[in-house]
Design goal:
Number of domains: 2
Strand order of the largest sheet: 1-2
Radius of gyration: 26 Å
Strand content: under 5%
Order of helices and strands: HEEHHHHHHHHEHHHHEHHH
Distance between the termini: 69 Å
Low-confidence stretches: 64-69
């Protein structure tokens, strides 16, 4: 009864505050005032139901008797699929669906799916820096821009082929990652975030104002699309080909990220994220490990920047604003920091859902913000919690039998 009375009071306040907007409608042309009393009833009922639902959810969250690190049913389901006999069939099924998808969708949808795959790669790259190393990077779009402009400029001035520019984009982006990492590794938390944010804005402003180099706000057009052994494709076939290229690169990035996560350097990164002082005491090269993480994460952004430039055939500095960095960071946080599967799922959701809900275009950002708030409240670890490795040491001491 107490919660019900508080809910009634809250709904009453909502009715009073919104009455001028929802109840009174003034027609200035005919000088007529219309009273919409039904809106008050709907506002009262809706606010009461929302209040009660919110209080129930918060009580459930606060009174949860499970341990903080105990897996939910969703985590258990994913673990069962990933480690049980269903793992291989699920992987093969997903691969088969991804391969035959171009046969059943339009060219517009194919372009959307290719963009989603690009953001999967970007999310996995930032996941190395933010999720594994715990270094907040708010300027990740700068490395994305480096890869895109590497291909665009080399193709414009020297007619460089896409396949030659692909590794060069990753190499130049990795170089920029090292340049950024070396002076900022002494910083932590908010200071590191501010410096990386400034780096991203510096790169964007340089590209926007250095007309003789980057063509300024006009951007670079007529970027060559990828070819296959010299064979050029039409618009529709090119979209399908770029989709398959992005799909193959995502598979490579997932493999490399998994191997890096299980390597000595990857485990050192995870340890540094938890306690840097203890890691230094154990002899871990903190600077070298973090620089490697920045370089590897930036190289992924550079490679997918080349794919993005080839897909769009036109780029300008407005494609690499802070909003892009924030979107990629949202993918990492929403998916689960350190989780490869979670980041991939979050990237696909955040890229495909706005397109399939265009009929709610006026409310998309409102729904997106509300979803992020709810995720941070009720599942702060993300969609898929990163699994910690557990090791058991066998007892090697000699066993004696009681006689």
């Amino acid at each position: 009864m107490r919660e019900l009375s508080r809910g009634l009071l809250a709904s009453l306040w909502m009715v009073v505050l919104t009455a001028p907007l929802l109840v009174v409608r003034v027609n200035t042309t005919d000088k007529v005032v219309t009273w919409r009393w039904g809106n008050m009833l709907w506002m009262a009922i809706g606010s009461l139901l929302l209040f009660l639902a919110w209080r129930w959810a918060m009580a459930r969250r606060g009174g949860d008797v499970q341990a903080a690190d105990q897996d939910s049913w969703f985590d258990k389901l994913l673990a069962r699929i990933g480690q049980g006999p269903l793992r291989l069939p699920v992987i093969l099924g997903l691969v088969l669906v991804a391969l035959v998808l171009p046969l059943f969708v339009s060219m517009y949808e194919m372009d959307i799916y290719a963009r989603a795959l690009i953001y999967v790669g970007l999310g996995l790259g930032l996941n190395i820096v933010v999720g594994m190393a715990g270094l907040l990077n708010l300027g990740y779009a700068a490395f994305f821009a480096v890869g895109s402009y590497t291909y665009a400029l080399l193709n414009h001035h020297y007619a460089l082929d896409f396949w030659l520019a692909l590794p060069l984009g990753g190499l130049f982006a990795a170089l920029f990652g090292v340049i950024l990492a070396l002076p900022v590794l002494r910083l932590r938390g908010d200071y590191l975030a501010i410096v990386t944010l400034g780096f991203g804005e510096i790169v964007r402003l340089v590209l926007q104002n250095w007309d003789s180099f980057s063509f300024g706000p006009s951007g670079i057009a007529n970027i060559a699309r990828p070819t296959l052994f010299g064979r050029e494709f039409g618009v529709q076939d090119s979209a399908i080909f770029i989709y398959y290229i992005a799909l193959a690169l995502v598979a490579v990035v997932i493999f490399v990220t998994k191997r890096f996560q299980d390597s000595r350097v990857g485990r050192a990164l995870l340890a540094l994220r938890e306690d840097e002082i203890a890691c230094e005491a154990m002899g871990i090269d903190k600077t070298g490990v973090k620089v490697m993480a920045f370089a590897l994460g930036a190289s992924f952004a550079g490679v997918f920047g080349v794919v993005f430039a080839a897909k769009q055939a036109f780029i300008n500095p407005d494609s690499f604003t802070f909003i892009e960095s924030a979107m990629i960071l949202s993918i990492v946080v929403l998916g689960g920091m350190g989780s490869i599967v979670g980041v991939a799922i979050a990237a696909i959701i955040l890229q495909l859902m706005p397109e399939y809900f265009r009929f709610m275009a006026d409310y998309r950002m409102l729904i997106f913000g509300a979803a992020l708030v709810l995720m941070m409240l009720f599942r702060p670890e993300g969609l898929v919690r990163a699994k910690r490795e557990h090791y058991t040491v066998k007892d090697l001491s000699p066993q004696t039998e009681d006689k």
